[in-house]
Design a protein that fits this description.
- With about 375 residues, this protein is of the alpha/beta class.
- Helix content is about 30%, strand content about 15%.
- The protein is built from eleven helices and 13 strands.
- The strands form three sheets. It has a nine-stranded mixed β-sheet with strand order 3-4-5-6-9-10-11-12-13, with helices on one face. It has a two-stranded parallel sheet with strand order 1-2. It has a two-stranded antiparallel ribbon with strand order 7-8.
- A hairpin with a 5-residue loop joins β4 and β5.
- α1 packs across α2 and α4 runs parallel beside α5.
- The radius of gyration is 21 Å and the shape is elongated.
- Bound molecules: S-adenosyl-L-homocysteine.
- The site of S-adenosyl-L-homocysteine (SAH) has 17 residues, from β10 and β12.
C-alpha cells in the first residue's frame, strides 16, 4: 500500500460519490462501493465482485482501504477488549469494546491527547498532540468489527451495538471530523448504528452543543463532576470559559432531549471533594427541568493522582439521594480494570509514555 494512495475510509457518501464521478463513474457505483466498504467490510478491491475487473484494478491503483495499526491488543478477564492503535504517523490512541449481556459498547477516541487538563483525568496530563481525522475515528469501528468478525453488518445479535465518544480527547473540539465520522457510522447502508445508540461525551463546550444536537442528533453526555463553579473551575478548567449555568442552559435547550432521550450527567466520585450528601441535593436542584440521568463513576486512580475514590458508603448515599429525586443513577461498574482500561477512563501505558514525549500543542479551537 503506497503512501500516495488516497484512503477511501472516512470519505462521506457525498465525497465518495464525487470521487467516483471524477473517474467518470455514475452515482450507483459509489453506492456499490459503499456497500463493500461499510456493509461487507472489504479491505481488498479484488473481492468486490459486483464491480468490473478493470474498475477494481483502477481503484486499487488509486486508493487504499485503511485500518489503523494495532500496537497492542489486550483482553480483560471480563471480556473487555482494548486496542492501542497506531496511526500512520506513529501517534497512538485507544479504543475499548465492553461486552454486556444485551449489548456491546465501543468507546472511541476523538483526539490524540487532550487540551482540557481535567485534574482527575490521566489523559489531561498530556497536551494535545493532534485531532484524529474522520478516517481514524471510523477506523476504530472498522477495526473492532474486523476483530469481532462482524461482517457483513448483521441486523440482529450484534456484538457492537453502541458507540460512546468517551475515549481520549474532547469531541466537540474536533467537531468537523467527528461529525463526518458519525454520519458514516449512522449510514443505514453501511455500519448502520442508529443515533439513539451513539453518545457523545463533552466536558461542556457550550457553543458546540446545539450543533451537535442539530447536525448529529446523537445522545449527549455531560462530564459535570461538580455542583458549584469554584470546584468545577478546579476539576474541569473549561468551566472558567463556560460555567455551570451556561452549560445547563445548553442542556435545557438541547435539540431532541426529552424524557425518552435523557441527557446523561457524568459525575466522578472523588473522596471528600465532591461526594457529600449536600452536593447530591444540589445536583438534583441543578438538574431540575432537564430530562436527565446521572452516571456516578467511581474515580479510577492513577499514579500521582491528586484524588482518591469515594468510599462505597459515600457513593451509595449520594446515589440514594439522586435516585429518590426521580433520577436513574447507576454507579458505573469499572470494567477491564486488569488491563487498565475502562470506558471513559482510558488510563494506559500509552498515556504514561507520551507524557515524556510532549510536543507543542496547537491552541484549543
Ligand atoms: N472530553 C470528554 C470525553 C472524554 S472523558 C468529556 O470530558 O466528557 C470521558 C469520561 O471519563 C468523562 O466523564 C471523564 O470525566 C471521565 N474520566 C476521566 N478520568 C477519569 C478517572 N480517572 N476516573 C473516572 N472517570 C474519569
Amino acid at each position: 500500500m503506497s503512501a500516495a494512495k488516497k484512503d477511501l475510509i472516512g470519505l462521506t457518501r457525498e465525497e465518495l460519490t464525487a470521487e467516483m464521478a471524477a473517474l467518470g463513474q455514475p452515482a450507483f457505483r459509489a453506492r456499490q462501493l459503499w456497500h463493500w466498504l461499510y456493509h461487507r467490510g472489504a479491505t481488498d478491491f479484488a473481492a468486490m465482485t459486483t464491480l468490473a475487473k478493470s474498475f477494481r484494478a483502477e481503484l486499487d491503483e488509486k486508493y487504499s482501504i485503511g485500518r489503523p495499526g494495532v500496537a497492542r491488543a489486550q483482553v480483560s478477564s471480563d471480556g473487555t477488549r482494548k486496542w492501542l492503535l497506531k496511526f500512520a504517523d506513529g501517534q497512538e490512541a485507544e479504543c475499548v469494546h465492553i461486552p454486556e449481556e444485551d449489548r456491546g459498547t465501543l468507546c472511541i477516541s476523538s483526539q490524540v491527547g487532550c487540551t482540557l487538563n481535567c485534574r482527575f483525568c490521566h489523559t489531561g496530563t498530556q497536551l494535545l498532540v493532534r485531532n484524529l481525522a474522520a478516517r481514524e475515528i471510523v477506523g476504530q469501528v472498522m477495526l473492532t468489527r474486523d476483530e469481532l468478525k462482524e461482517w457483513p453488518s448483521p441486523k440482529d445479535d450484534r456484538q457492537l451495538t453502541n458507540i460512546v465518544l468517551m475515549g481520549m480527547g474532547e469531541p466537540l473540539y474536533n467537531f468537523d471530523e467527528v461529525a463526518k465520522a458519525v454520519k458514516i457510522i449512522l449510514d443505514g447502508e453501511g455500519l448502520a448504528i442508529s443515533r439513539r445508540k451513539i453518545t457523545l461525551s463533552t466536558a461542556g463546550v457550550v457553543p458546540m452543543i446545539r450543533r451537535c444536537g442539530e447536525e448529529l442528533g446523537v445522545n449527549l453526555a455531560i462530564s459535570l463532576h461538580a455542583t458549584n463553579d469554584t470546584l468545577r473551575d478546579e476539576l474541569v478548567p473549561l468551566n472558567k470559559k463556560y460555567p455551570i449555568a451556561e452549560l445547563l442552559e445548553a442542556c435545557r435547550t438541547y435539540p431532541g432531549a426529552h424524557n425518552a432521550r435523557r441527557i446523561t450527567f457524568e459525575y466522578v466520585m472523588l473522596k471528600d471533594v465532591n461526594d457529600s450528601p449536600a452536593e447530591a441535593r444540589e445536583l438534583v436542584r441543578l438538574l431540575d427541568g432537564i430530562p436527565a440521568k446521572v452516571n456516578l463513576i467511581p474515580f479510577n486512580p492513577w499514579p500521582g493522582a491528586p484524588y482518591e475514590c469515594s468510599s462505597d458508603a459515600a457513593i451509595a448515599a449520594f446515589s440514594e439521594i439522586v435516585f429518590a429525586a426521580g433520577y436513574s443513577s447507576p454507579v458505573r461498574t469499572p470494567r477491564g480494570r486488569d488491563i487498565l482500561a475502562a470506558c471513559g477512563q482510558l488510563k494506559s501505558d500509552s498515556i504514561r509514555k507520551r507524557r515524556s514525549e510532549r510536543v507543542a500543542a496547537p491552541a484549543p479551537v
